[in-house]
Write a structure and sequence with these properties.
Blueprint (H helix, E strand, L loop, with lengths): L1 E2 L3 E4 L2 E4 L4 E2 L4 H10 L10 H5 L3 E2 L1 H15 L6 E5 L29 H15 L10 E6 L7 H14 L4 E7 L6 H9 L2 E6 L4 H7 L9 H13 L4 E7 L7 H12 L5 E4 L11 H16 L6 H11 L15 E4 L4 E3 L11 E4 L9 H6 L7 H4 L12 H8 L7 H15 L2
Parallel strand pairs: 6-7, 6-12, 7-8, 8-9, 9-10, 10-11
Antiparallel strand pairs: 1-5, 2-3, 3-4, 12-13, 13-14
The structure holds iron/sulfur cluster (2 copies).
Length: 425
């Protein structure tokens, strides 16, 4: 017998990570847990603790980890990433494509319509028998580099995607919005494409990182184009990357963006670990600011992913988070027709699934990605947030430990700080 790994001691409070609640226990029971957490020798085990699952067996726990791993690992494909261009007109210093595991930007290659068409038709076939529960979603993302450098493709591939897939499949373009014109806005509006735009705060902070190759700033053009999109009725989502440079008063910066654009949602990107320098206080400061933004302005606008994580960490939402890394459910197609799990590590062998021309769905490398689970990782199994945390980004993990199965430091520290601040422990 043992004290369950899901049991955590915070002073005199006992947190049950599996059920996400502090347990109501007698002082004797608390004492018992404290004395036996590391090693349970006592044969005189309080029955109540066995009933609560606080005391369990090694076998039962192992079974539970296996069950949770299965529950949280997606096995059906529901997302297609088309890397429309590996070129970019900007030269942002924190871009994850700069890492040695990627190298994609150097090729500056545009996708041809024939490749995109083939990928879309295959995706249609692959997803046709998917199990579609209440929370099912399906998405096609036009990604880069900068997709607007390949307008010739976009004007063909977006209408074709809409022709193949009805409105249950979201179409999303991820862009820096610097090359946008009125025809593009019309294209997005006509085909219900959500436009996700990278924007890092006010003019000064945005221009620190998001510059052209000649070092020219981009803020003014980006914010004006976002307003044009919104005025035309296109759904726009600002993607705000948190760096040490914009974290001071980050919640206020977010609010300014929200106010200026008149929107009610946004997304904050935690820096992928080791893709760009971050200080030791980065994760804690970010957690503090995200909580502030939610508490002060959450009724006006919020980050959907944050709200979900918050509700889960606080224990209001008892759901078990699926793996947050999308790589087990998405097919990423590069301009040359090569298939990957994730767009960020083109050079990594285990990420390569073959090409559009062969049976990439059966590639054994998918199993490596599906094997990546926090329920196999000792640090996660001993973490109070293990049920709510999605386990972070595999690229972040690879950047830290040369393995996709390790810890994504930034995301991990951020989640742990959120937990501590929420529960005051
Ligand atoms: S490894 Fe990171 S960047 Fe790649 S799909 Fe997973 S979460 Fe996204
Ligand atoms: S990644 Fe970090 S925060 Fe998430 S479950 Fe693992 S140890 Fe906990």
């Amino acid at each position: 017998m043992k004290i369950s790994s899901f049991i955590h001691i915070f002073g005199d409070r006992i947190w049950d990570a599996l059920n996400k609640e502090f347990l109501k226990l007698s002082p004797e029971e608390v004492e018992y847990i404290k004395n036996n957490k590391e090693h349970l020798e006592d044969s005189n085990i309080p029955l109540h603790l066995i009933e609560l699952g606080v005391v369990t067996t090694y076998d039962k726990e192992k079974e539970m980890f296996l069950k949770l791993k299965k529950l949280t690992t997606d096995t059906q494909f529901q997302s297609l990433y088309l890397i429309t261009s590996t070129a970019c007109n900007l030269n942002c210093d924190y871009c994850f494509y700069r890492s040695s595991a990627s190298g994609s930007l150097h090729r500056r290659e545009n996708m041809k319509f024939s490749v995109a068409k083939e990928a879309l038709e295959q995706f249609k076939e692959i997803t046709k028998n998917n199990i579609k529960g209440d929370d099912y979603w399906q998405q096609i993302t036009f990604y880069g580099g900068e997709p607007l450098l390949n307008k010739e493709l976009l004007y063909n591939v977006i209408p074709y995607s809409r022709h193949l897939f009805d409105s249950d499949t979201s179409l999303v373009i991820n862009t820096n919005a610097t090359l946008l014109d009125n025809n593009d806005i019309h294209l997005f509006k006509e085909n219900s494409v959500e436009v996700q735009v990278s924007l890092d705060g006010d003019e000064e902070k945005h221009n620190l990182h998001r510059k052209t190759h000649l070092g020219e700033p981009t803020y003014k053009i980006v914010i004006n184009n976002m307003k044009k999109l919104l005025d035309s009725g296109v759904k726009v989502l600002p993607m705000i990357t948190a760096t040490d440079d914009n974290l001071d008063n980050f919640s206020e910066r977010i609010y300014k963006i929200v106010k200026e654009l008149g929107i009610d949602d946004y997304a904050v990107n935690v820096l992928i670990s080791n893709s760009f320098n971050s200080s030791d206080s980065y994760a804690e400061k970010l957690a503090e600011e995200m909580l502030k933004a939610y508490e002060k302005y959450g009724k006006i606008a919020s980050d959907y992913a944050f709200v979900e994580l918050y509700n889960r960490l606080i224990g209001e939402d008892k759901a078990i988070s699926k793996n947050s890394c999308g790589a087990t459910r998405k097919i990423t197609v590069f301009p040359n027709g090569n298939i990957y799990a994730c767009q960020a590590m083109e050079k990594l062998g285990v990420n390569n699934m073959g090409t559009l021309q062969n049976d990439y769905i059966s590639n054994a490398n998918w199993f490596e990605w599906r094997n990546r689970s926090r329920f196999d990782n000792n640090e996660c199994l001993n973490c109070a947030s293990v049920i709510s945390c999605g386990g972070g980004c595999a690229t972040g993990s690879y950047n830290c430990s040369q393995s996709i199965c390790g810890i994504d430091k930034n995301n991990c520290e951020y989640t742990k700080h959120l937990f501590k601040k929420i529960h005051n422990v």
